[in-house]
């Protein structure tokens, strides 16, 4: 075969060794002398030297042979149009023939299944939109009225109860099981969690959370050693939980990857620490203005009327400040400044004239009035806004994304801390430092501080300083420096800039594709507990070296777009990092095998590491939308079904219910939902009946116990009386015996006779009392034993009932 052979389209008319047309999987590559196998999902394979023989060689590879049955199962047979035989340049004759197409046969549903499909789409919409069940009771009638010619609409039936059990026992369960199947196929997974406090403003203990997590994994058949790390925020309870889970994993020879808490919280809390070092109380100024209008529609309307006099398109509402997201205070301040003139007019002109009584002796009004008239407060507001917009906003906006960003976390944290330092330190001291070197700086050195003229406070803030006295300006700069120092101190203490793992994973960025970073990939491989064997760690270095020199990696895999802004500066928009690595890790060798199997295993498990807890915290907003206050009667099963279905629509349907592919498993889950719902109702009824029966038996046992205790008290009283009588008889015998001894000495026969009678009487009495006392004691023992046995039986019944309830409810 001559060199530099071009791909021939006439090859597409050929068949393989089993008579199947190769055009079902063969196509030309990106260049004229390459080809691709769509079945094996290869990149460009070279045919410039061997020509058709290169394709034949690929057909014989193990991967291709393993994939051929799937092609056969999903193929249809079609007949090409009859054409006159033509000759090709390489002597191959093109003739009409049977052709195997790889078009996947669409799922066909019978009429009843089409109705179920429509009901499935509607149930998905209810979950995704957060519609209440009761509000959709007449939706079937609405559809029949809208589409009178639709047979499906005529059969459509989704009342509130059906919608409820379809979501709780059908779709919710289906999406949950699909997630579990996906996790079981994975080598590792990450569990991200967060919690809200209860009515007493308390969190669950670490021990309770540990038990809940481990039991949940067991219930779904997931192995604890699959857990790569816990994504969490920073409370000490969560740190204790992480240590508890890690200890459990160490018992089975595994462990957690520990990277600390959510770093977005660190940024918020660093900003908060800085503000709290001063006495500005900026957040309270904003809360006062918001609270003035919060519960009063009349006040809101008055403000809207005032705003309309200035600009009818201006924002007309105040923003609420949440004290868990401190940097968002900047958004609130921005709104205050947008409405500054209308607020000034409303509070300082309108209210004193039209609402005199309302503002008299009103502390909140006086505080708002001071905020709107004081240049000192306005400067403080402007400086806090400068901090938010110029230092923290970019970082927080970046890491609110759902895309994998673990590879840029270290550099961005480094940039954030350096940016804070550069606001008050000289550039030659901190400007060229990165990572852990920044933490080694002493930012309190007097000779490294910027003076009041050069310290960064923002241009708007600096302009407003002209309205202050010299003493007021000095106080502002004193507070600014204290805020900067406190913020820097908090960040220095809490940022993981000396974490070698976070530093090393930066090499996953395409710009680090170089042989000089082979040591870093080995350190990464060693750091992930229980993922790679020692041999695989060695392979990871070799594959990184091959990857570094791979000429098949296209720039288009990581650069999405290049464009220029209005000034002519080139802007580069990058693909997500998982898009890039998906391309790289799908590269195959000439024989169809994965080129980077070990890197694939390692990097896929690195990219699932969370860069913060924003995804989980967004879940609270989703939950509030799905379960508002007026849906408080929803069961846990319904809530879980709603949330599982919502997430299913988000990830499978890209957020649109009509884009979720309805397969036979979904149809089956909906059809089975009613029987599962009925079974669940019966099980709960049985639990209720058992509980009621147990309550009756418990009440009976209580009554029996009371009766036994009463009898026991009577016997104890009788025992005490008999013991007293026995003591009295014993005393008589002892006294009579003493008198008898004396009488014998004195030879007083009469006294001897009397003493003998007393002794005989005492013995008779003592014997009778002892017999009664023995019977009373025996009765006491029987009653106490019976009471103890009844208590034990009740405990066993209770434990048995709880176990049965747990089995039924799960």
TrEMBL record:
Pfam families: Dimer_Tnp_hAT. InterPro entries: HATC_C_dom, RNaseH-like_sf. Residues 787-810 are annotated as: Disordered. Residues 594-640 form the HAT C-terminal dimerisation domain. GO terms for molecular function: protein dimerization activity. Coiled coil: none annotated. PANTHER family: HAT FAMILY DIMERISATION DOMAINCONTAINING PROTEIN-RELATED, PTHR37162:SF11. This is HAT C-terminal dimerisation domain-containing protein. It comes from Rotaria magnacalcarata. The lineage of its organism: Eukaryota, Metazoa, Spiralia, Gnathifera, Rotifera.
């Amino acid at each position: 075969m001559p060199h530099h052979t071009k791909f021939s389209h006439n090859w597409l008319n050929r068949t393989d060794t089993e008579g199947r047309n190769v055009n079902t999987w063969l196509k030309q590559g990106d260049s004229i002398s390459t080809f691709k196998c769509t079945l094996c999902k290869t990149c460009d394979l070279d045919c410039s030297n061997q020509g058709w023989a290169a394709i034949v060689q690929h057909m014989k590879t193990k991967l291709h042979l393993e994939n051929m049955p799937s092609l056969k199962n999903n193929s249809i047979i079609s007949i090409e149009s009859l054409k006159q035989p033509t000759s090709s340049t390489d002597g191959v004759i093109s003739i009409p023939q049977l052709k195997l197409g790889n078009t996947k046969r669409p799922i066909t549903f019978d009429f009843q299944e089409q109705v179920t499909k429509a009901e499935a789409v509607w149930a998905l919409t209810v979950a995704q939109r957060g519609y209440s069940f009761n509000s959709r009771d007449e939706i079937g009638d609405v559809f029949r009225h809208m589409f009178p010619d639709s047979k499906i609409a005529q059969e459509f039936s989704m009342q509130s109860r059906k919608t409820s059990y379809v979501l709780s026992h059908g779709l919710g369960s289906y999406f949950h099981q699909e997630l579990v199947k996906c996790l079981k196929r994975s080598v590792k997974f990450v569990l991200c969690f967060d919690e809200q406090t209860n009515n007493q403003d308390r969190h669950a203990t670490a021990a309770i959370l540990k038990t809940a997590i481990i039991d949940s994994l067991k219930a779904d058949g997931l192995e604890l050693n699959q857990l790569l790390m816990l994504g969490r925020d920073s409370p000490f309870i969560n740190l204790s939980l992480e240590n508890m889970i890690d200890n459990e994993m160490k018992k089975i020879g595994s462990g957690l990857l520990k990277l600390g808490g959510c770093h977005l919280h660190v940024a918020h809390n660093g900003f908060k620490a800085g503000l709290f070092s001063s006495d500005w109380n900026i957040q309270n100024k904003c809360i006062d203005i918001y609270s003035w209008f919060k519960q009063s529609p009349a006040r809101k309307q008055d403000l809207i009327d005032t705003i309309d006099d200035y600009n009818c398109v201006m924002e007309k509402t105040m923003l609420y400040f949440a004290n868990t997201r401190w940097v968002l205070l900047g958004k609130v301040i921005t709104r205050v400044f947008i409405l500054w003139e209308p607020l000034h007019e409303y509070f300082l002109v309108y209210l004193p004239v039209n609402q005199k009584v309302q503002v008299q002796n009103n502390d909140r009004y006086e505080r708002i009035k001071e905020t709107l008239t004081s240049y000192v407060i306005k400067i403080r507001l402007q400086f806090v806004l400068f901090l938010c917009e110029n230092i923290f906003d970019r970082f927080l906006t970046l890491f609110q994304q759902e895309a994998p960003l673990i590879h840029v976390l270290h550099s961005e944290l480094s940039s954030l801390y350096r940016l804070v330092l550069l606001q008050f330190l000289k550039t030659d001291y901190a400007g060229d430092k990165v990572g852990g070197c920044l933490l080694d700086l002493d930012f309190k050195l007097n000779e490294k501080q910027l003076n009041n003229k050069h310290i960064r406070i923002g241009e708007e803030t600096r302009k407003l300083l002209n309205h202050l006295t010299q003493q007021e300006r000095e106080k502002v700069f004193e507070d600014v420096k204290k805020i900067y120092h406190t913020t820097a101190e908090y960040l220095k203490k809490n940022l993981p800039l000396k974490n070698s793992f976070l530093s090393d994973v930066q090499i996953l960025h395409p710009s680090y594709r170089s042989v000089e970073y082979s040591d870093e990939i080995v350190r990464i491989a060693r750091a992930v507990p229980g993922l790679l064997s020692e041999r695989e760690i060695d392979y990871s270095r070799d594959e990184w070296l091959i990857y570094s020199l791979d000429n098949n990696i296209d720039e288009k895999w990581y650069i999405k777009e290049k464009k220029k802004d209005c000034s002519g500066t080139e802007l580069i928009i990058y693909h997500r990092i998982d898009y890039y690595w998906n391309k790289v890790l799908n590269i195959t060798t000439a024989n169809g095998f994965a080129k980077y199997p070990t890197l694939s295993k390692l990097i896929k498990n690195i990219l699932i590491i969370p860069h913060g807890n924003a995804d989980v915290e967004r879940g609270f907003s989703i939950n509030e939308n799905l379960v508002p206050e007026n849906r408080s009667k929803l069961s846990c099963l319904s809530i879980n079904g709603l949330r599982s279905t919502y997430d299913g629509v988000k990830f499978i349907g890209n957020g649109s219910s009509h884009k979720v592919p309805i397969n036979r498993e979904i149809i089956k889950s909906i059809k089975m939902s009613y029987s599962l719902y009925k079974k669940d109702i019966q099980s709960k009824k049985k639990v209720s009946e058992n509980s009621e029966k147990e309550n009756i038996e418990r009440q009976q046992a209580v009554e029996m116990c009371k009766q036994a205790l009463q009898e026991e008290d009577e016997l104890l009283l009788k025992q005490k009386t008999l013991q007293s009588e026995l003591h009295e008889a014993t005393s008589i015998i002892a006294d009579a015996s003493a008198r008898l001894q004396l009488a014998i000495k004195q030879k007083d026969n009469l006294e001897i006779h009397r003493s003998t009678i007393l002794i005989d009487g005492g013995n008779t009495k003592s014997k009778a009392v002892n017999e009664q006392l023995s019977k009373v004691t025996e009765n006491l023992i029987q009653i106490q034993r019976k009471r103890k046995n009844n208590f034990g039986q009740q405990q066993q019944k209770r434990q048995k009932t709880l176990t049965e309830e747990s089995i039924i409810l799960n």
